[in-house]
Write a structure and sequence with these properties.
With about 220 residues, the protein is of the alpha+beta class. It is built from 5 helices and 7 strands; from the N terminus they run E-E-H-E-E-E-E-E-H-H-H-H. It folds into 2 domains: about 140 residues, Structural Genomics Hypothetical 15.5 Kd Protein In mrcA-pckA Intergenic Region, Chain A (Roll); about 50 residues. It has a 7-stranded antiparallel beta sheet, covered by helices on one side. Helix 1 runs antiparallel to helix 5 and helix 2 crosses helix 4. The longest helix has 27 residues. The protein starts with 7 loop residues before the first strand and ends in a 12-residue tail after the last helix.
C-alpha cells in the first residue's frame, strides 16, 4: 500500500561501533518522520544520553538546556529531505564523554503497510551496554572480567554459608544484581522495545519537541 502522502519506509540497520560481538537493531521508520523522531526511536532501541547525528556533513539533534545546541529544528527536519540512497550510512553519537557511536545504514526504501505502526523494530541481537559503564574499551574490559568476578563471588557466598552468615549474603544483593545484568548481555527483548515504540508512536505530536525520559 502506498501512503497518500507519498511517504516511504526506511529499513535501517543500526549497530554500536567498536564492539564485538556486534550489538545491533533493525528498524522500520517512516521517511516523513523527523530527526527528533529518529532520536527517540534510537533512544528506545538502545539507550539515552546527550546525542547528535552527523548526516551529509552537518550535525543534527534535539537541543537541550545546558547541553549541545543545534541550528536546525530537529522536529522540522524530515528524513525524506536527505534523499537517502540504498546502503547510504550516517553516524549517531551519544554520551560524548564516553564516546559511543552508532552506525546507521539505510538498507532499503519500502512501501508503507497500512496496518503497521511505525517506528518498529524487526530484529536485533544483544542488550545495550549497562548504563554509565564507560566507553567501548571500558565495556569490553569489564565484560571480560565478569566470569572471574562470578567465580570469586561464589567462593565468598560459600564461605558465608559455612559461617552461617546470611546477612553477609543479603548485603551482596546489589553486586549480585550488577553481575546478573552483565551476564544477561546476550538477551534482547524485541517485544519490549516494540511496546515502548508503540507507546511513543501513540503519544507523539507533530510539534512535540519536549524532552522525553527513558522508558
Amino acid at each position: 500500500m502506498v501512503d497518500e502522502t507519498g511517504a516511504e519506509v526506511y529499513r535501517l540497520h543500526v549497530w554500536i561501533g567498536r564492539i564485538s560481538p556486534m550489538i545491533w537493531r533493525r528498524l522500520l521508520v517512516r521517511s516523513d518522520s523527523s530527526i527528533a523522531d529518529l532520536h527517540y526511536t534510537l533512544q528506545t532501541a538502545f539507550d539515552e544520553h546527550l546525542h547528535r547525528f552527523h548526516i551529509h556533513g552537518q550535525d543534527y539533534g534535539v537541543s537541550r538546556a545546558g547541553g549541545i545546541m543545534f541550528t536546525a529544528d530537529s522536529s522540522a527536519v524530515r528524513r525524506s529531505s536527505f534523499q537517502f540512497r540504498r546502503n547510504e550510512s550516517f553516524r549517531y553519537e551519544y554520551d560524548f564523554v564516553a564516546g559511543w557511536e552508532h552506525q546507521v545504514r539505510v538498507e532499503e526504501c519500502l512501501v508503507l503497510e497500512g496496518k503497521c505502526r511505525y517506528p518498529r523494530c524487526i530484529g536485533g541481537r544483544r542488550r545495550t551496554p549497562p548504563e554509565d559503564c564507560g566507553g567501548p574499551l571500558d565495556f569490553i574490559a569489564r565484560r571480560d572480567e565478569v566470569p572471574m568476578d562470578v567465580e570469586e563471588l561464589l567462593e565468598e557466598i560459600q564461605d558465608d554459608l559455612e559461617a552461617d552468615d546470611l546477612q553477609a549474603i543479603r548485603d551482596r544483593t546489589g553486586y549480585i544484581e550488577e553481575l546478573h545484568e552483565w551476564l544477561s548481555l546476550d538477551r534482547f527483548d524485541r517485544r519490549a522495545v516494540n511496546h515502548q515504540l508503540e507507546q511513543y508512536a501513540m503519544s507523539r505530536r507533530p510539534d512535540d519537541t519536549a524532552e522525553r525520559t527513558r522508558r
